[in-house]
Design a protein that fits this description.
- The protein is an alpha+beta fold.
- It contains 10 helices and 11 strands.
- The chain has 2 domains: 108 residues, Malate/L-lactate/L-sulpholactate dehydrogenase, four-helix barrel (Hypothetical Oxidoreductase Yiak, Chain: A, domain 1); 171 residues, Ribosomal Protein S8, Chain: A, domain 1, CATH 3.30.1370.
- The longest helix has 19 residues.
- It is globular.
- It starts with 6 loop residues before the first strand and ends in an 8-residue tail after the last helix.
């Protein structure tokens, strides 16, 4: 979220801050660097509520002992094209990136692979992980049980569903890859937290009071409100199905069992996720597929827009933001800079401005 008051911060400074903080939390340097790389990627693509924004919360969980800084991540290949990963309560970034690597390895053999996870943690932006198989010219899918229940089931008034995200990444040729990254809520809860931090009013169709059904627009009153599913019952149904596949199927938490990592930061979350990798070359020549994706993207982009609108494709703004931020640094709100400077002081590491 970029406003006139944001400050551009060099990428190296952000990477250094995250890495130093993770090392201070007793992560091995190699793991700390991996976490920093994946958190930075979330910021680069514009998922501003899922990158360095989350650092204070991650550090707090390490301090409370609710996340394991040195996990023994175990991969069990359960069939030719499937695997189950025990994350040993480590950082979700490490667990899910291992899952993506495993999915690509299995898909090289089998054409497709599904890798589930349990005993994982919050991993940031879904699109980061769906895009990892792109490096191997594969289609990637990622879904997760969110780390808190903020939505009701269709017609309900209880917080029983997470914003369970779904991301799909499809490689292209000369065009940027198509990357769809959506929460099953009307907006992600990270967006709500960002609005609360900056005291920006919520849109009236985002949250409602569970007792009256009235819209909640004051971000400071978002704590007990219901976050609405996208598309009404469709979003609620999708969140439920993804939760069962990412959580229950893998022996991870779902529904009433979920631990709210905001309200109960001292508890392990047993987060469930899955990654799917699909090799398009098993269906046709890879170059032919990529060329066809390019052709369709160009035809769709050139289609007639609605008055006052611009035709948008999944992944285009992501690619544009990434190029801009690589060149000019990350935009950060002053409220976030204050939080990160406070964290750095508490941990005895360099502030962003000193890097």
């Amino acid at each position: 979220m970029e406003t006139k008051s944001t400050t551009r911060v060099p990428l190296a400074a952000v990477t250094g801050l995250i890495t130093d903080a993770m090392v201070q939390c007793n992560l091995p340097p190699q793991d700390a660097a991996k976490v920093a790389e994946l958190m930075l990627e979330a910021d680069l693509i514009g998922a501003d509520a899922h990158g360095v924004f989350r650092l204070p919360q991650y550090v707090d969980r390490f301090k409370r002992g609710s996340t394991n800084p040195r996990p023994n991540i175990k991969v069990e290949r359960t069939a030719p094209a499937t695997a189950l990963i025990d994350g040993d309560n480590g950082m979700g970034h490490l667990v899910v990136s291992r899952a993506a690597e495993t999915a690509v390895e299995l898909a090289r053999e089998c054409g497709v692979a599904w890798v589930g996870m349990h005993r994982s943690n919050h991993a940031g932006a879904a699109g980061v992980y769906a895009a990892l198989p792109l490096k191997a010219d594969m289609i990637g899918l990622y879904a997760a049980v969110a780390n808190a229940n903020h939505m009701p089931v269709a017609g309900g008034a209880e917080l029983l569903l997470g914003t369970n995200p779904l991301a799909i990444a499809i490689p292209a040729g000369e065009e940027p890859p198509l990357v769809l990254d959506i929460a099953t809520s009307v907006v992600s809860y990270g967006t709500i937290k960002n609005h609360r931090l900056q005291n920006i009013p919520l849109q009236p169709n985002w949250m409602v009071d569970p007792t009256t059904g009235a819209a909640i627009t004051d971000p400071q009153k978002s704590g007990g409100a219901l976050l609405l599913p996208m598309g009404g019952y469709k979003g609620a149904g999708l969140a439920l199905m993804l939760g069962l596949m990412a959580g229950t199927l893998n022996g991870a938490f779902f529904g009433r069992d979920c631990v709210d990592f905001n309200a109960e930061p001292g508890k392990a979350t047993n987060t469930g996720q899955f990654v799917v990798a699909l090799d398009p070359s098993r269906f046709q020549k890879l170059d032919t597929f990529k060329a066809e994706v390019d052709r369709h993207m160009r035809e769709l982009r050139a289609s007639k827009p609605l008055p006052g609108e611009t035709v948008r494709l999944p992944g285009e703004q992501r690619a544009q933001r990434r190029a801009d931020r690589l060149a000019h640094g990350l935009p950060m709100a002053p409220e976030l800079l204050v939080q990160l400077d406070k964290l750095a002081a508490e941990m005895g590491i360099k502030r962003l401005g000193d890097r």
